[in-house]
Predict the 3D structure of the following.
Amino acid sequence: MNMWKENSMTVVSKVVCPVCGCCCDDIELVIENNKIIEARNACAMSAAKFENYSLHRNMDAYIRKNGELTKASLDEAIRKSAEILAESSYPILYGWSSTSCEAIKVGLELAEEIGGVIDNTSTVCHGPSILAAQDVGLVGTTLGQIRHRADLIIYWGSNPWSAHPRHMERYAALSDGRFQRNMWRRIAARIRADSVRKKITRIISIFFKRGRGTPRREAKESFEMLPSGERKLIVVDVRRTRSAELADYFVQVKPGGDYEVLQALRALIRDEELDVDEVAGVPVETLEEIADVMINCNLGIIFFGLGLTMSKGKLRNVEVAIKLTQDLNERTKFLIMPMRGHFNVTGANTVFTWQTGYPYAVDFSHGYPRYNPGETSAIDVLRRGDADAARVIASDPISNFPREAARNLADIPLIVIDPHLSLTALVADVVIPSAFVGIEAEGTVYRMDHVPLPLKRVVDPPKGILSDEEILKRILEEVRRLKKS
Amino acid sequence: MEILILTGRTINQGCGKEIGKASKEYVESVAVCEMNEKDMENLRIRDGDRVKVTTEFGSVILTAKKSRRIRSPGTAFIPYGPWANYIMGSSTDGTGMPLLKGVPAHVEPTEEKVSTIRDLIDSIMV
């Protein structure tokens, strides 16, 4: 492990961050007395996790008795969990995106053993993207290629400033690559110009009493005014996010209008003419300008987020975005990548696929893996009220699912394995505390571009707290013992 | 007032969830409804007032927040979290994914307190 001493503290370097799909691998942690006291190179979310992870953690196992969660020993909680799962006829095992690939592998073994449904959180994030890629393929890449070569970066329905804070800095528009420079200089100049513009507006408003408002710069510079050959950044979204403020061009689409805008761009790229003035709130002139920039770039990429998968159209939005990329490859080189949220949601899809043949929503109730999102996916199973028990790990579906699905989940015997006392844990029948993977337990994760990275164990977990993998192995052993007897 | 609800990530929501969902930071970052200034004027509410957001699937009480990021009147933004999700439907139209962005809702001013995590849990434990 890369580490050195600074006074009485130990500094561990090259730590992989267990927060978002960027999996930044340059974090340095300052540790004193088995406690992380500082996280260096970390974004706000990463620092919040590394420096505060233990503040609201759960240290005890619980079993619900007479309607109340009552403290229990770990052995009792594991035994009770195994009993619930062994007795159920159609259990659902859900979560997986915030744990290691090694734990996911044991989870799949457990799902096969008990003949239930196993689903990961991509079902309510990039599940539609997977369905679209299965339909039309995906022109993918690794993030290193983007950092070094991409001269046009488009974030579509994605707000990296908030959801993947170091994505731009490490892999995209704000990174310095071998063949492409970062955009900082241009952004700094723009911020200075904005500041001057605001001052002038304020002075005018004082002298002419036209109100105190300072009009924002609505339209960005025309692409023609930007230095040729330099990296360009476009953000397409339904609201003006912080990421949009950094962009050379921000395109605001009416909610639910992404499909139309993407199809319009496809038409323009094929040199067809549009006989309307605007598409989903975007003037055709703007679309023509963007189509030109897309065709004339050397290497472009669309990073798309949940703005496409959760809005009207869902997988069809992603499908048409992929088709746009394919069309663009007739004229130049263009790539596309989903902005994966949890740090190992890509790993969950990968392990699911190599173990069962399918990336999520896998049903073992027939004794072999079946895959039919819309039927075997977590929300649908719960909505129909089919599941008779559930085991949730490294996720909080009571927070993240719509009310009806959450209500049905709370209605059935529910086991939760989580380091926090999450909302799901509060309604559970069995709660098992676990170690924080990537801090107190090691393992493997897959970055959003499918690059596997090792998570480190940088501090010891509290006494008696096991990793997700160890807990699952013990539940699996107990289930097998119960089934034999 | 009829309004379209958008949902999404914010950096404060991201930090709050990493600290813990029982934390003050999380609740304060998530139980909010970011609105366009004109919509707030029409509802006669100010920054920090409460609004009741109702869809066909349920209601939640949130703190209204004026946002320059909501440029079009008629849309509002609620960060990801149980407050947003508990007014969403669970039908997936055969895709596995419910509609979680661009959901029509009714927004009205209210004197009621912001829904707590306990309120939300009680609403599903009935």
